[in-house]
Amino acid sequence: MRFDKFFNPESVAVVGASRTFGKAGNVIVINLLNLGFKGRVYAVNPKADTILGLKAYPDVSSLPEIVDVAVVATPSVYIPEIMKDIASKGIKRVVIISAGFAEGGEKGRLLQEEVLTIAKKSGIRVIGPNTTGIMSTESMFCTSFIPIESIPPGNVAFVAQTGLFLGVLLETILSEEHFGISRVAGLGNKMDVEDSEILEYLAADEKTKVICFYVEGLKKGNARRFFEVARNVTKEKPVLLVKSGTTEEGSHAAASHTASLSGNDQLFSAMCKQAGIVRLEDLEEMVEAAKAFVFQPLPKGRKMAVVHYTGAGCVMGADSVIQEGLELAELSEETLQNLRKITPEWHHLSNPVDLWPSIEKSGADTAFKTVVEGLVNDENVDGIVVAIGVMRGFPLKWPDMKQFYGRKPILTAVEGDRDKGYEVVKRLEEHEFPCYRSVQRAIRALSHMAEYSTKK
User: Fold this and answer.
1) Distance between CA 124 and CA 240 in Å, rounded?
2) Contact at 8 Å (CB) between 94 and 161?
3) pTM, whole model, 2 decimals?
4) How far apart are CA 203 and CA 216, in angstroms?
5) Confidence class of residue 250 from pLDDT cuts 50, 70 and 90?
């Protein structure tokens, strides 16, 4: 795969490596060393002898080998000359971290064109500029200038125009979520390497099962290609996408952030739908959808069941199912007969299933197991959302869900005490049952799975 050396290089040069903590060239080297990057690291700085224990080279031409990737983290005005040095050395892959290009006005645009001209003339592929760059848990290669302590490997990939994914959002995922990451690609201004090229790479990447995109806009000449590629990719892997710049003010912000043209939002949504892309409103919704896709099997249809321990929860759950474009499954007579065995005679059984009367008659363990098992076995049900209440006054318990895994998607809403709830979430997600803060959020995630699977 032609982009694999970008994600899994055997050697890298950090041009602009620094001894000063906090500078981009310092943190990039720290991340490579601390994360355990498997390749060789070279520091390039004409004013230093050593940086973080590494020998420093005065320029790229002095390096002892032709590295797979050069990461450039210097002021933008120096980069044309650095690119010429990189070209003469024979290096073919560059990640430009630095800002100060097309996003900064006419002067920056001309500078970006100059750098691109040098790259094209020398056959160099460039990611960036104005980005945190690349991360791969396979090789532990990371070009982010945000300190990162650890990254659990997994099967979700993120592609973005923003450094947020190799910074604060990554920290949020690492501290709150329990799924791992395969690759991250921050494309920045997309001077050279485009979304469609990375999408093609991830489509063939065995480490990636779910692909997440954040875009502020697609260049006119590349939008058609992106959707053509996506149409093929979504036949095999879900592609989740958040696009910002949907308002006039957001479009202006996108232009100043990454020099992006946001374009017609309604047309963009229509193109996503035709290509099988699941478009989402924001990054939180993307993360919630991603873990549903990576943890659970796809639903075969749109008929869903909801289990809650309160009547109000059942009513709101029913509303959410319809509001999200799903259907409430009609439970089979066999399922209803089994549930009547654990339920008081006065209680009317229906979907959503109010669990509390069954708990009062038969106990929590029996009620939960019988209800969930019945829904899993019911051919009328394509997916299930189960609410779990966690109270400070009750002993901490988590339901045994392992026996139900794999036959149809089961998403859980863990409600109640935050601290006890976190323990339940951790246990469930370790067994790949995704957890959400509310039934509504779980149903929303399930609706995205149904949207993808029924149009696949």
Assistant:
1) 30
2) no
3) 0.93
4) 22
5) very low
